[in-house]
Write a structure and sequence with these properties.
The structure holds two protein chains of two kinds. Chain A is α/β, with parallel strands linked by helices. Chain A has 15 helices and twelve strands. The longest helix of chain A is centred in the C-terminal third of the chain and has 37 residues. Chain B is built from 13 helices and 13 strands. Classes of the chains: A alpha/beta, B alpha/beta.
Chain lengths: 514, 447
């Protein structure tokens, strides 16, 4: 296998005139079509090393890695970046994702050498400041949730779910209740909930939502038994609604000897306003990359600390902190009760620094105000669109996100997908589509607290215009959308049927022949 | 509050439009006894300069690795990251984008992931790589589960050279399942796994360079595993080594996992890092995590999408291959940019430089009376046997400004056979003066 060594694109794609490489909408070849083996963006001495200590394992197979000088690299990655939408460039109303502003002070703080250039395994006596960050962040999280412990190390929300459910399993095992093999999950739940329960060997039992989009305590009671280990409930739920019977549900779950895992993905709606510990939760992960503004980075890294009730605290994973006077101790090996270790080292320090900076900037008053503004914004959108779009579950107020279904598109020939793609041409990232599964053709809009009234009004006007056009039969505007994006709709079926998961020179020669 | 755009007038107007008297009305579904009935013991909002001062004070309590001689590795390595990498990853379009669910307006992230997957596959010598995992340790656990799904067998053997915290992570992920065998620590690089392979074995897990620094020739292990229908999972915690040392894929590995931190990502006290996971093409549908694939748009233009998502939780729910959702996108970007800057030539030179610095370290340590370097082979890390317990010695040297390495006992407490062992790494940033300072200090301590 060899790669292009000419330093030139081998097969520039036949681009349509619509978007071909204009100065402001650049097309960009692949790294493997512009770089080569002789270019490098680093200057390093070429030292000789003998084979004496390599045990006959010197690399013989080709590395086949193209290099770019610094100016070439800057251009490649800047041009690529311009083909991305981002929260800094416009409203990103992805329901359930909490795309809020990412303050830049957070970035600056994470890059202080005292945080960025510190090794996880250097002596504990030399990292008291790092432990101080973890300790302080933990205190904020426990205070905001009214819980007694927090497992900091989970690396994302789904990892946090694993953590909470492992603590629940360990607690049952310790009480001789290891036979409990069922986890209750409402049908509106995130896919990670049933996946996590199944990952741990539990049988998932689905709970239907009532006609108001929430879970009835009676439905939970009917599903509870001596074999149920836990319920995994999202609150506020994925329809954007606060579960009105959550306290009664918690009581019923506890009376049945089970635990309450709360998916905290939507904590942004209630931070500083409602404490989940007061609702009776036993474990809840908090997505620092949603609620506490650590950047999403095109798909991570996240962080998913899990707050724990007194009942589950003894089973928390290592590592955790213990205070000894002024000194913080890092406990890396626990006794028999801890369920173990979820990752090497101590978790996502870079995210902790950002989240703590965000919390200190807001303060308790600012966090509560942010939650209230997020709820206000979602209700404003709902109020301004409900006459032309269809909102399920009556007229009740929503929390931080507004859910619509596709009833208003019935008979227009426009689908939720078409509608979402048309939003791109109006300058917006689409909302979450087809989730939650409990309503038909779901459109879940989460504006967050970061959007100004002016932006909300522009968004609302654009949505109303789209709805009017759909109902007027201008189907073409939707089915051909997006037309003003770098690419038109992509063939996902082809991608899945003939997977091409890396660049190969063969692909190029084949395309050239086509 | 500088991050909240609404004025009080805005809020009042919006409430009027909604038809609510107050925001509290919007929280009507919340039982009154838990709504706003507490006052958290937390400070109120602060100006930027006050927050910065607070965070700087915390940062100031840490010893910065680069402030003096520093020799800790053990799964996280102190390398130079070019300035352009950090500049590029802070561009809004990279930093503040979500997972690329809308491919038409996410081609930047998607093309980058396609390039990343190709780079990772080439680096590890494998056929396909995914779009990243949380880190090396969780990727190892996921690889073990993947091997069990592929082979439909239970037994998994972890080599004694596997990073102890990687081992502990796998043990936790597999708790409640049978078949896991963890071999005892093998600080001298002894072969320890072949005799344990039998017909029930799903996979063996071997790290190279291993936790103690030894390079492992895994090709005989691949043959032994394959003869019994088992898979070879190779773990790499120091990916810079692959610029000089043979790729696991070329030695018969079936699944390779790695932590990519060494390329593009700072130490940051252990995270966020980026897990790499690659395998043979025939196993791709059993892979966890996101995959990016090439396709065309409606006009026939090349483009990229997330694909094969029928493996994933948002489609398959309880039948998914893993519960993973978020990966490590921005760290993968940093990795990809840095590796593009290095290129084949740069990575090869960087790897040689690391090895050369480690050879200088080994030679200096060989001159410390009473201490013994256990490694015949290594890349940039090695194990030193001391005549005294390593942990208190490391503390004493830290007081003198020298971070001497990792006492193995920190990760393997209660095991007398490792109490005197110290694992040390050198990188391109380790100077002759650093090495001399360490050697002199050790001589002083051991005299």
């Amino acid at each position: 296998m060899s790669m292009n060594t000419q330093g030139r694109p081998t097969a520039p794609q036949a681009a349509s005139a619509a978007a071909a490489g204009s100065a402001l909408l650049p097309e960009e070849p692949l790294l493997f079509e512009i770089g080569d083996h002789d270019h490098s963006g680093v200057d390093l001495p070429d030292v000789d090393v003998s084979d004496d200590r390599l045990g006959g394992l010197r690399r013989q197979s080709p590395l086949d890695l193209p290099g770019l000088t610094e100016p070439e690299a800057m251009r490649h990655y800047v041009r690529l970046s311009r083909r991305n939408y981002s929260i800094d460039s416009g409203m990103y109303p992805l329901g359930s994702c909490t795309m809020k502003h990412n303050p830049r002070l957070n970035e600056k703080m994470a890059r202080l050498a005292g945080f960025a250039d510190v090794h996880p395994l250097q002596p504990v006596s030399t990292v008291q400041g790092a432990l101080g960050v973890i300790d302080e962040l933990a205190r904020w999280l426990m205070e905001l949730t009214n819980t007694v412990a927090v497992a900091m190390s989970p690396k994302a929300g789904a990892h946090g779910e694993l953590c909470g459910m492992m603590a629940i399993r360990a607690a049952h095992d310790a009480k001789g209740q290891g036979h409990r093999n069922i986890v209750l999950v409402p049908e509106s739940a995130h896919g990670t909930n049933p996946a996590t329960a199944a990952f741990l060997g539990y049988t998932v039992k689905s709970i239907d939502a009532n006609e108001n989009g929430t879970v009835d305590v009676e439905a939970v009671k009917a599903a509870l038994s001596d074999d149920v280990a836990a319920i995994m409930l999202t609150n506020p739920n994925t329809c954007g609604l606060f579960e009105p019977q959550v306290i009664e549900i918690a009581q019923a779950v506890h009376e049945a000897g089970a635990y309450f895992y709360c998916d905290g993905a939507n904590f942004n709606a209630i931070m500083g306003v409602v404490r989940p510990g007061d609702l009776g939760i036993d474990a809840m992960h908090i997505n620092l990359h949603k609620t506490f503004s650590t950047p999403h980075g095109g798909g991570g890294p996240g962080a998913g600390p899990v707050v724990l009730s007194e009942a589950l605290a003894p089973y928390a994973p290592v590592p955790f902190l213990r205070r000894d006077g002024d000194k913080l101790e890092l406990i890396e090996h626990a006794g028999a009760e801890s369920f173990g270790r979820l990752t090497a080292f101590h978790g996502q320090m870079g995210m902790y620094v950002r989240a703590l900076t965000y919390m200190l900037s807001h303060g308790a008053d600012g966090l509560a105000q942010a939650a209230r503004d997020a709820v206000l914004n979602a209700n404003y959108i709902k109020a301004k669109l409900r006459d032309v779009m269809s909102a399920p579950f009556n007229g009740q107020p929503v929390m931080h996100e507004a859910l619509f279904d596709d009833t208003f598109l019935k008979g227009t020939g426009v689908t939720t997908l078409d509608f979402a793609k048309a939003m791109i041409d109006e300058g917006f990232h689409p909302m979450t589509m087809y989730f939650p599964l409990v309503v038909h053709g779901a459109m879940l809009i989460e504006p967050t607290e970061s959007e100004s009234l002016q932006t909300l009004d522009v968004f609302i006007a654009a949505m109303r215009d789209l709805v009017q056009d759909a109902k007027a039969g201008n189907v073409e505007r939707f089915t051909s959308a997006p037309r003003r994006a770098p690419l038109s709709r992509l063939d996902e079926t082809r991608a899945a049927r003939q997977p091409r998961l890396k660049w190969t020179p063969l692909d190029n020669s084949r395309e050239a022949a086509e | 509050m500088r991050y909240l755009p609404h004025s009080e007038a805005d809020r009042a107007g919006m409430l009027a439009a909604i038809g609510a008297k107050s925001v509290d009305e919007l929280f009507a579904a919340v039982p009154a006894r838990v709504l706003g009935t507490f006052s958290p013991d937390l400070p109120d909002h602060q100006p930027e300069f006050a927050v910065e001062a607070h965070m700087r004070a915390l940062a100031g309590k840490n010893r910065v690795a680069g402030d003096g001689p520093f020799f800790v590795g053990a799964g996280a390595y102190r390398h130079h990251v070019p300035a352009s990498v950090d500049h590029l990853i802070q561009r809004s379009e990279w930093l503040t984008a979500y997972t690329p669910y809308q491919p038409e307006i996410s081609q930047g992230t998607l093309q980058m992931l396609f390039e990343f997957q190709t780079q990772v596959a080439h680096l590890l010598g494998m056929e396909v790589a995914n779009a990243s995992m949380y880190d090396g340790s969780t990727a190892t656990a996921e690889a073990v589960l993947m091997a069990r799904r592929i082979t439909k067998k239970d037994k998994v053997i972890l080599s004694g050279g596997l990073h102890p915290q990687y081992r502990d992570t796998v043990v936790t992920y597999l708790s409640g399942l049978s078949g896991l065998e963890c071999l005892t620590p093998s600080p001298e690089g002894q072969g320890d796994i072949v005799d344990h392979i039998d017909d029930d074995t799903a996979a063996i897990v071997v790290q190279t360079p291993d936790f103690y620094g030894h390079l492992r020739n895994v090709s005989a292990l691949a043959d032994a595993a394959h003869a019994r229908g088992a898979l070879l999972i190779v773990v790499v915690t120091e990916v810079v080594s692959l610029g000089l040392v043979e790729a696991p894929g070329a030695l018969g590995a079936d699944i390779v996992v790695a932590d990519g931190q060494s390329i593009g990502n700072p130490l940051t006290f252990g995270g966020p890092y980026v897990g790499l996971l690659a395998c043979r093409e025939k196993f791709v549908r059993q892979m966890p995590g996101r995959l990016c694939g090439e396709t065309v748009d409606a006009h026939g233009r090349r483009g990229f999408v997330l694909t094969l998502s029928t493996r994933e939780q948002h489609i398959r729910r309880e039948k998914a291959t893993s519960n993973i959702c978020t990966n490590s996108g921005l760290c993968a970007l940093a990795f990809s940019i840095h590796l593009s800057l290095l290129g084949e030539r740069g990575l090869h030179r960087l790897a040689k430089l690391n090895h050369a610095r480690a050879c200088a370290l080994a030679d200096a340590l060989a001159g410390v009376p009473g201490a013994e370097v256990l490694n015949k082979t290594f890349f940039n890390e090695m194990t030193l046997r001391l005549p005294v317990a390593a942990a208190p010695l490391v503390e004493r040297l830290a007081e003198k400004g020298i971070i001497a390495g990792l006492p193995v006992s920190r990760l393997e407490p209660g095991k007398p056979e490792v109490e005197n062992l110290l694992v040390l790494a050198a990188t391109e940033l380790t100077t002759d003066a650093d090495i001399a300072a360490l050697a002199d200090a050790l001589k002083g301590e051991l005299a």
